[in-house]
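Re: weekly structure request thread

Next one in the queue (392 aa):
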Amino acid sequence: MAKEIALKYGCNPNQKPSRIYMKDGRDLPVTVLNGNPGYINFLDALNSWQLVKELKAATGLPAAASFKHVSPAGAAVYVPLSDTLKKIYFVDDLPLSPIASAYAAARGADRMSSYGDWAALSDICDKETAKLLSREVSDGVIAPGYTDEALEILKSKRKGSYNVVKIDDGYQPAPIEHKDVFGVTFEQGRNELKIDESLLENIVTRNNSLSAEQKRDLVVSLITLKYTQSNSVCYVKNGQAIGVGAGQQSRVHCTRLAGNKADNWYLRQSPKVMELPFKEGIRRADRDNTIDVYISDECADVISDGIWQNFFTHRPEEFTRAGRAEWLKTLSDVALGSDAFFPFGDNIERASKSGVTSVAQPGGSIRDDNVIEACNKYGIAMAFTGIRLFHH
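Done, posted below.
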């Protein structure tokens, strides 16, 4: 392993010189096996690796993440995918190993945000995962290792320039971390807080029971939030994040943003979307964009504009607002985590519209009673974790 890696530039082309290195002079815990990762690539790589490593440790399941601009667009642990999810994630034609399935779920929940992502894998990258990565628009991948077949596949991606990084699975960072801002050095203890089901014991609502699946999903949500730019909330179902709201100044805006993503994830599974008459040869990215428009409020205008003839064999039936609302009523068993307390019950009101039945948040607001009352109104179980998960 090298002691430093020179980078093309920092966040922007004018920010030179740029490199990564260890202040104590030790070898870096990462090895570049292919490509030339940049400054933002390594920020995504190191944050996403921590996320998937913690997910694997907390659940015992293979885990994957899809990162964009130092926040997860998606994260998931291995839960077998239904035929419907395989189809909407465009992997129904591929054999899927557990780690490949986890990445398909991490990337598939919000495919528009995952476009051009950095992938992270908790386990050795196998050929199934490499084949999946090889056909998606992605900047790079970090994993504890790669099979020979997988590495050969990845080295052929993007005309040989695809970024492949191997990390030392046993690497432990120093307990104190530093960051320079405007010439000033900040120092803090690393956030070594262990997130597991023990954080979910203080249930404060009338519905005071959580199933094993709900506990798993709340743990997935909280670990995802630990590596998401604050303010942040995360909706999770069946072991995968289906809506992440990051970097908002208002918590209810986080809840709305992530809730809209969760709604879109579920709308994509509706019979109307599943039966859209796409022409042969339409690229996955164009399908994603077209579906996103089809399930949006602009659908009627787009149909009248005649754009559909570019993508469909015939004009599809409109997915009305009433029809979308009826379908969304069937979404349930969604878990919601928040990196800090909910200050008002309006967050719960919005979350309830996206099928949320369990919540984990720190608690500690002067309006906790209002938030608890809102949960009781919808029969939602809520745990106060007592811990904040800000990440900046």
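The radius of gyration is 21 Å. The longest strand covers residues 71-77.
Next request, please.
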